[in-house]
Amino acid sequence: MILSLCIPTYNRAARLHDTLKQLQFVLQWDLPVEILIGNNGSTDGSAEVISAMQQTLPMIQAFHYPHNIGMERCLASLLRTARGRYVLYLADDDQLIAERLLSGLLFMEHHPDVVAYYAPVESWHVGSQTSLGNSFAIDQPRQFTAADPLQLFRFITTSVAMPDRVLFRTEVLARVCFNSHKGYAPLIWLAQVLAYGTLHVATRPFYRWGVGYNTTLVQNPGSFSLSVNLDRRDAIQGGLNLALFVLLRLLQRTTVISKEDQGAFLEGINAFMIQSLPTLTQFLFRFRDYISAMEFARQYTVWRCDEGGTIGRELKLADLDGHYATVMALHAISHLVSNLPGTGRLVLCQVAGDAPVISRVLQQMIPQIVLTEETVAQILASNDYDDQIVITHGADVREQLLAGGMAPGSVIHFPDWQRHFKVGA
User: What does pTM read for this prediction?
Assistant: First the structure.
């Protein structure tokens, strides 16, 4: 499977029909595609539209939820189910530009170091079928790696108006798409993927954002000024702060800087942390994301006690990270599982000496979940992949399970999750 298109929907039968009809171009591709639709308890005939379109687009897989579980939970569930090499979120009232999407897919196929393909979004007036312009404009393609995260942050804040339509490698998105902070998630994902490879920014859009139903676009490229979803401004600001937090940590771990610049550079990071972390903590508490709030409160305490610029270099911090990162990663897993509909059980597979601790903590956090410990052979023999999430320490185990047909989002490589909660390198 090459591409997974993920479409959450709720009571937009007519728009969903138009979107699916436009996707018929995939029938002309010589590439396997799956279309995953999460029907969020719609009552307007959306189920009938999906059923009818399956006759034309047999690659449609529908997940019908008995009630509206929310767009974020629905999308998270679809992303965890995706089996394509690449994955893309598509709103139920938007369109794709076939030849440019195909160009992006082929580019990523020929450049295995590229883990995310980012392009402008074209605002498309549905009524007149005309373009209202792109969300940002660049003359030449740009690329960002782990060596230049601050350049990415500067690019996002000065050039991009709508950073949430990105073609991801599914395996990489599965590693960063978790622990739903109440910030603007795509901003955080863009920051986190640099730890796994290159982010490529293309010049031409492959995605059309449909406007003209009952909203208008304020033409202001380079800002986040939209006349729709204005209540998301706080979330966008929070997302920017969280993204910068991730990028600063990544830069501290990966960039080689001269000794004379080290002190000033680390002092700058510390100054930012001391100033911003209380704001982040208050922001997350306000949205009742207590797990994340606790994490940032802890980060603030550590940074505040270490203003000299030695963060991440003391043994005591390494010891703290070793214990704390494990607990926070388990909190994140419990958050994920609790919000994913249809997850019946968690399976531990080769988690070394941590199995008793992981099992005990998870059972306390999510007592309703079935928790088992199995081998790779037992998991693959069950053929019951859709209602389980596997936790493992072994990268080889993860590869075996993916080769056996499990979706990347269903296999958690636990060290990846621990690393996101570490302060030191």
Answer: 0.71
